[in-house]
Amino acid sequence: MASISSSDNDIIAIAITDSDQIGSETAIEEVSISTTQIETWDLPSILRYRRVKVQAHRSRRVCAFHFLALFFYLVPFVSSEMSENLVFQACRTVFVFPWDAQLELQISIEWDLEAFLNVLKCIYGCPIDITGDNFLAFYEGALYFGVKFLLEKCKTWFSEAASSIVIPQIPLDNLISIWNFGIKSGNDFLLESCGSYLAKNFMWAISRKSFVDIPYSLLVICIRHPHLTMESEMHLCDALLIWLDANTGDSDGLSSTETNYSSILKQIHLSLLPLWFTEGKRRSCHFSKLADESIISVFRLLKVPPTDSIHFLEDGDFKDTRIRLTEHSKTMNLSSCIQITSAMLLLSLLPSTYSTDSKLRKNIKQLLVKLESVDRYLNPVSHGLLPMLSFKAVEEVNISKCGRLHLQASIECFSMSFPSLKILKAAYLLDFNIKTLRLLVQKCPTIREVDLTLDTSPVISEQVSDNFVVTGDKPVAVDKSSIYKSHLMLSNITKLILEGRSELCDSDLLHISKFCIYLQHLNVKGCTGLTDVGISTLIQRQHVTLQSILVCYTSFGLNSVLALCSSSHGTDDTSAHFPESMAFNLQTLHIGGCKCVDETSLLKLLSQTRMLKSLCLGDTHLTDRTLYSLAGSSLEMLDVSNTMVSGAAVAHVVYGNPGLKCLRVKGCRNLCQRESNTGEGEISSYFCGELEMALGKTCRLEELSVGWGFSHFSIEALKAAITSLREITVSLGGSLGEGALIQLPTACPSLQSIVLQFQVISDDIIINIMETLRNLRVLALCYCFGDISILGFKFSMPNLRKLQLERVTPWLTNKDLVILIRSFPNLVELALLGCPHLNSDSQQIISHGWPGLVSIHLEECGEVTANGVSSLLKCVALEDLLLRHNGPGLQKSFICYAASKMPLLRKVSLDFCDASEGCFDVPPDDQKCSLRAVKLARCKSRECGLTLPFLEPRRKPVHKETLVLEWTGKNVIKKVAKERPRLKEITDLDQGLSPMLSENSDALKWTEFKKKMGMTCVRGNDRPKAKAHVPPFPKNDMTTKNMMCVK
């Protein structure tokens, strides 16, 4: 209750008690301030007081009027008699007897002190700064005190904030408070503004923790708002499901209120959801029925040829297939939406009336036919044919895995509707070639980054016996299109990713270098068609701008090194002109697997680098001498995997680069040093003390991949360096032991990925990982030994996305699979090797429990495919499928059938042992869908165990060779590989670890371990020199003549 006091002073006063500091023991009691000094008020000092008395002199008539307004607002806070007395005395003081009234009027209130003082400053004309944190306090004060000027200023600020395209200025918590205030006060302006603000900044809002606190009424207005802005329909669906899970019960029986809440999901455009996402959400009680509708809708669209989709869309409701775009959209993400066609894209970029008006559809058909016509270069498309909408804020478009999109037509649409386009991601699209890239540059001159990634070759060059390029019956025609005849238009592309495009040749790279003259980042990893001369030519042309080059597993060699080390004047100077060479300014250099670079060339190259932040030298001829020559102090990533460097050399680099965040030394056998102590016999130990000391003193690692020399002592030595570790891989040669593995989750609480190979594990280790690392996303246990059971996997891990169990769960049954599904409900990648108790029923369990899987690897898993494959094909979002030694039930047409059922399937790996008819049909080009690579392995029978006269020798199939087929944008390449990578790693283990063991008990233990793991190693001298027999392919497919095998 407010109170009134009077005296003989000539002032009017308001005493404000800060409502936020009531009961505070630290606040100072009271201070008096005057409005005569309002411009010099020190608010931080004033706000330290619990109670502030603001005085205004009666002689300042304008002050009296302002205070009178405040008094009238405060009338409801006092009793009726006091309110009448207050109003009478205030009016008498200001209006009736201003010349002789000596009465002081004072009223005491509780209010937000800072807000009240700022309102008062605004009344007196002082400048104020409205922010997202104080908007509500200002608006509420202006509204209650009737300060119209401040009220209008608040409205203007909110309107500008809602329409701004910069980072949102109002925190989500504050926006919710503003909405609640608007509901209580019935303020339509606030309600409309909050809905508009949330709709335009929806992508930002869903990343906030308080998103689930948004009131349902506000969420509904936002979703239905015409300015709802998001990157993809998937983001909307995921956000709504998260909100529903947080605001409704978990039981299947939903209440009426919860059912009403779920009705908001009807606003989702189900036809625009990617298959993997929809399948993964099938188990949601809110979305299960809608998921079925979405899958049916997507496959209904897939049945229609892309060229006929415009006719199909005319017959239905186009609203569900319209891509959401607004004037505030910055990104359009259609990744993995295989159902998207050029017609759907075009209709989404036209006014909505064009999809409903039959008179206007004729123009749409004409434009679409023209966009997709073969001779469109000779007859350019007129931009005035249809009123295409322009979305000037769109800077990024992602059409990766949209295999049905007509690329040239899509680029025309981009050029007309996205004038500010800077980034295009078009990964895993075989048809996107250099000619298409030229068209993109011509039509979208603002483009800066282009990603054309493909899957890299499944085999490396030294494993291949012969490559055979097959073009089939299609003659390779000379391109006479005007795109190559036209004037060479220079592009503004600074980042170009061509990873995995094995069809690229030197002439393509030369053409790129002519029009991409501002390249700063080039990725041609796995582009096996490029030569050292071609790469060096591009480097010479990009000498001034190129800062990052990724050429892993290419023919990068001496010529390219010389090009990097040469000065800008074209001379080769390795000492006097470091600042003028490209190597000096390189920030990223990835040459892993480039065997053409010898030690001398590496030494020359690394000695000139000074600015490197990321360096990959894995699988190269790297030595200590070369690594010691590395200069610079900016490294954040270093990969020297599978090289001959020592721990001392790596430690030298670590000491000089304290900002190192990622270190990969897997497979470095010389990393550890050997000690001998002959006091009581020879004792061998392996340690990397110098490297561990360097890491512990200087680095804060986020990723670590180790092997040889990494032991249980390493965890303790690296404790300071691995507190922020997110990914760890311990592989061949490393031996952490049970104690260190139990300590690992505590030492690295932020771990999201754990890969353990050839380690000793137990239930206690697995349980500790599950209980501690709640954000774990990847768990891989490969060829580990020890006694583990299903008990270690009975913990809910909803964040786990990838599970890889190889030779560690031979006891796994169908019941155990059900437990894994309950514990890891959101898996997208599953790999099982050596689970002999599984059978054909396992298919149904896997497909029903994890319908959203994109990768399935099943090898030596009992009789999973003995009766064929049917249920697994229900995982319609699969992109990678490996089935080997699971039972001979695969039909000859399995590959073609699987590709037709799973439209995103890119990689298939099978074994002829599982073929019911002894061979497989390979789909022709018009039936391969999204297929990129097919691997068909062959085995040979080999005796195992002891051969005794009274026992029949046991024979076991071992890998002999693999036929690899790769589809490129131009042709089909067939390869024959002799050794699978996993077998090679086991062979390395056998050859590398055995010499380190003593000739007595240790050797016996190693032999027993191999028997226990069922490992059969294929050595080089075991390989037959005769040519391999490859089962015949259908007549309508390519021949396999002239193929040869690796010796």
TrEMBL record:
Transmembrane segments annotated in the record for this chain: 62-79
Q: Where is composition skewed (Polar residues) in this entry?
A: 1037-1047
For this protein, the record's Pfam families field holds: BACK
SUPFAM superfamilies the record matches: RNI-like (SSF52047)
Q: What is the lineage of its organism?
A: Eukaryota, Viridiplantae, Streptophyta, Embryophyta, Tracheophyta
Coiled coil regions in record: none
Region entry Disordered, spans: 1018-1047
Q: What does this protein do?
A: May act as a substrate-specific adapter of an E3 ubiquitin-protein ligase complex (CUL3-RBX1-BTB) which mediates the ubiquitination and subsequent proteasomal degradation of target proteins.
CC terms in the record's Gene Ontology section: SCF ubiquitin ligase complex
Name-wise, this protein is BACK domain-containing protein
Residue ranges annotated for the BACK domain, each copy included: 175-283
A Gene Ontology annotation in the biological process aspect, one of them, is: SCF-dependent proteasomal ubiquitin-dependent protein catabolic process
* UniProt keyword terms in alphabetical order: Membrane, Transmembrane, Transmembrane helix
Q: Which Gene3D superfamilies does the record cross-reference, listed alphabetically?
A: 1.25.40.420, Ribonuclease Inhibitor
